[in-house]
């Protein structure tokens, strides 16, 4: 039986002739947590854009649970079970964490209906469990604008999980977080990995070390290498890619960590 939740075959994405992704092949097992790293411009964001249907392949294909995603609209792909967390938190700041999660649990209702109708018991349980999972049970009823950046990030991850996606795509979840918040986010992703397939894009190598089992390195739109964190860090091609771009080291400490 094929236990791949995601298969990407010979994928090329050209923007006016420039190949942001170049004959890329990638697969993810159901239940796997994968971290993707790579220097600026390697194609990481485009890689996520292709999976969510924001960008269409020029060549090649993306299969999600065996289904070709070509020409399926973004919102329909989301409904098929792919959830994406962007870098900047997108929570309703005037609502509480509990209300934000209730809204996400029931996307069919609008904001007013969610706030003024009685929440079914099953949903209350889900929200309670999620608040505990994301470590916001004690701050469940204060406006989200009073949360720290890290707490907002965890809330948004919770909102994503509330929609019950099979595959979670998480883009740089610890950018701008303190060390403590970074560790908490890592613990949260590890907990979620027990019941979800997750792809995380990240530059922070300390964080990558905390959560990574298998790492994929992208470079110039293709997979440069894959392996566990030690294999990847010691791979001469990876060292070369990061060493060859001294200005990148200033932008992202990952390169300094690797050398
Ligand atoms: N819409 C677009 N039109 C033209 N070029 C684009 C477009 N989107 C991305 N690119 C180019 O494709 C390449 C890959 O970009 P992408 O944003 O996917 O890289 P990245 O690995 O996410 O980089 P970063 O770490 O800086 O976010 C870059 O050279 C970028 O300039």
TrEMBL record:
The keyword Hydrolase does not apply. It comes from the Bacteria. One of its GO terms (molecular function) is ATP hydrolysis activity. GO terms for cellular component: plasma membrane. Residues 6-245 form the ABC transporter domain. Coiled coil: none annotated. InterPro entries: AAA+_ATPase (IPR003593), ABC_AA/LPS_Transport (IPR051120), ABC_transporter-like_ATP-bd (IPR003439), ABC_transporter-like_CS (IPR017871), ABC_transptr_urea_ATP-bd_UrtD (IPR017781), BCA_ABC_TP_C (IPR032823), P-loop_NTPase (IPR027417). Keywords: ATP-binding, Nucleotide-binding, Transport. Pfam families: ABC_tran (PF00005), BCA_ABC_TP_C (PF12399). Gene3D superfamilies: P-loop containing nucleotide triphosphate hydrolases (3.40.50.300). This is Urea ABC transporter ATP-binding protein UrtD.
